[in-house]
Amino acid sequence: MPGFVFAPPEPVTLPIKGTDARFPVRRVYCVGRNYAAHAVEMGHDPDREPPFFFQKNPDNLDPSGRFPYPSRSSEVHHEAEVYVALHSGGSDIAVEEALGHVYGYGLALDMTRRDLQGQMKKMGRPWEIGKAFERSAPCGPIHPVAEVGHPEAGRLRLKVNGEIRQDGDLGQMIWKVPEMIAYLSAYFELAAGDVILTGTPAGVGPVRRGDVMEMEVDGFGQLTVRVD
């Protein structure tokens, strides 16, 4: 059997609440503007238009509780989200069958170099420079469906240094989890290990070195991340 020309990277895995087992990550999809109030604050029409997605890299997910402020940016924003972890997938998944592919849910922050993202938007270029940089998705452990079910509502709140910045509810999602899975599967073949970030409510804003972000969602505990 042929060898590798250099040692392959370690697989990206996420912790699972209540067990020592790890969840191996395959891909990371993120839905954009999935809360009406956030769409408005970003200058867009909140009407229910077809969803759109961008991707982060698997190794952008970081459960360490630390977020290193990235270089080449002076405006980095927090976006508090719930993520969905899949244990199976496929193509053209029906909406009514979509939740059967979900292993669990967790808390995540879609950290965004807003200044660089804005520059890319103006030039009609992809967003990766603003979204898919190193450790740009601080996250907490996965809560298995067997423990938390499939939440359709629940308060989502983010504090920065004790001050509430984002305060919404999962029930405010424009596109619900089954719809996101079904829509994505029409364009990509989903598989075990895929992670979907489900969008953020209004109130996104900048962070600075030394800030402490505290995110809570009913039933999922708290995610605390310090900006270094």
UniProtKB/TrEMBL annotation:
Alphabetically sorted, this entry's keywords are: Hydrolase, Metal-binding, Pyruvate
Supply the EC number(s).
Answer: 3.7.1.20
Gene Ontology molecular function terms on file = acetylpyruvate hydrolase activity; fumarylpyruvate hydrolase activity; metal ion binding
Which enzyme type, at the first EC level? Answer: hydrolase
Annotated InterPro entries: Fumarylacetoacetase-like_C, Fumarylacetoacetase_C_sf
- Which stretches make up the Fumarylacetoacetase-like C-terminal domain? 28-227
Task: Check the record and name the SUPFAM superfamilies matching this protein.
Answer: FAH
Which domain of life does the protein's organism represent? Bacteria
Q: Give one Pfam family, short name only.
A: FAA_hydrolase
What is the name attached to this protein's record?
Fumarylpyruvate hydrolase
The organism named in the record is Pseudoruegeria aquimaris
